[in-house]
Amino acid sequence: MESIASRLQTTRQRIHRAYSAAGRGEPDAETLLAVSKTQPATAVREALAAGQHAFGENYVQEALAKIEALAELRPQLVWHLIGPLQSNKTRPVAEAFDWVHSVDRLKIAQRLAEQRPAWLPPLNICLQVNVDGGSSKSGVAPGEALALARAVADLPGERLRLRGLMSIPEPVPAAAGPAAQRAPHRALRELYDALRAHGLALDTLSMGMSADLEAAIAEGATLVRVGTAVFGERTARAVQQAR
Ligand SMILES: *Cc1c(COP(=O)(O)O)cnc(C)c1O
Question: Distance from the CA of 123 to the center of ligand 1, in angstroms?
């Protein structure tokens, strides 16, 4: 089996090449978010030993157990919640994470702002946008993103820091061609540009996964969320257990 260190190296090379191909210079330490959902704490340790500090988790309970198991390494780790967040789970998330990418309504942001402990730095927030319009999907509608962004940026107390936008579009197979793979990423980037033009100080565009990180970087992604390419396939059993 290929080691996590070697998979990480391959993934970093892909990111580097995509940045060069897009004429974007060098990626930085924040560009790769290693998605460790369903992976054991030992896998996170292994990735950390190979120089990876930022990890993304989907399931709150699983993540909290892992963060706890790795408590002695906490200063070296940056934990991002990228999965759905229900309002009854906001408190432990506000207390344990550094970032939340999946904020799609004001109520969740208000709760996170109220519950973020005063001794921690502000919680970094991305708004999840439903770029391809599936009605069953989470994410704010693109037409409502500006109003939500303003409301989140204006929350009192400075316990949140609005950083950018995130999306999880329907995967477009590589066989459909690069233009088709880029389309949903372009939609999010255009929205991001529009929000910045309205004066919102955003610096994070969270889009692209193992299968399409090149397309996302070509469209301006500043953070790609990569699970399979870093840790290997997730087994159905592991996914079942993590939920
Ligand atoms: C699982 C997941 C990823 C990573 O997906 P891979 O295809 O394994 O790279 C990225 N973002 C979100 C929101 C996810 O749930």
Answer: 21
